[in-house]
Amino acid sequence: MGVVKAVLCTGFVLLMAICSGGGANIVTVDVHAARRLLDQGNTYLDVRTEEEFENGHVRNAINIPYRINTSEGMVNNPKFLDQVRSHFDKEDHLVVGCKSGVRSVYATIDLLNAEFKHAYNMEGGYLAWVENGYAV
Predict the structure, then answer these.
(1) d(CA 60, CA 6)
(2) Shortest CA distance to 97 belongs to which of 48, 39, 37, 24?
(3) Taking 80 as the threshold, does the pLDDT of residue 6 lie above it?
(4) DSSP character string of 105-117
(5) What DSSP state is assigned to residue 66?
(6) Closest CA to 44 of 117, 119, 99, 116
(7) Which residues is 118 bridged to in the sheet?
């Protein structure tokens, strides 16, 4: 049931992104295509919190949280794009993932709007990765 909910949420977010006309043309890939991209040299950008990342992650992933815990609760990481720019060039090929595929949509939109040309959203996130038995 959780995967169905995640897919529906991701679909809704993608529909909103398309309808908003924000200029970002998101490419969403399933977990199998994401693995192929990683095998071809793309980098996995994990946008989950540090705590989530420490509990398990895609092998060789770089963790830059899109949302962070503060005294006011979860908020967007105001340094997200600066942190990404410090690790990657705008021409680098990135597979962006989170827990279930929702935060990664927003992160991918921000990356594309910041002129990162090869950012791909991974549908289903880390849950789909683990569910398919891929290495962590």
Answers:
(1) 24
(2) 48
(3) no
(4) HHHHHHHHHTT-S
(5) S
(6) 119
(7) 93
Question: Is 98 an active-site residue?
Answer: yes
Q: Of 13, 47, 98, 112, which is the active-site residue?
A: 98
Structure tokens at 27: 């490419």
**Domain residue spans of the chain:** 2-131
Residue with tokens 């992160």: 107
pLDDT tens digits for range 38-94 = 999 999 999 999 999 999 999 999 999 999 999 999 999 999 999 999 999 999 999
Distances in Å between the Cα of 29 and the Cα atoms of 23, 85, 108, 109 are 19, 23, 12, 14
The 10s digit of each residue's pLDDT in 27-54 is 999 999 999 999 999 999 999 999 999 9
Structural class in CATH, domain 2-131: alpha beta
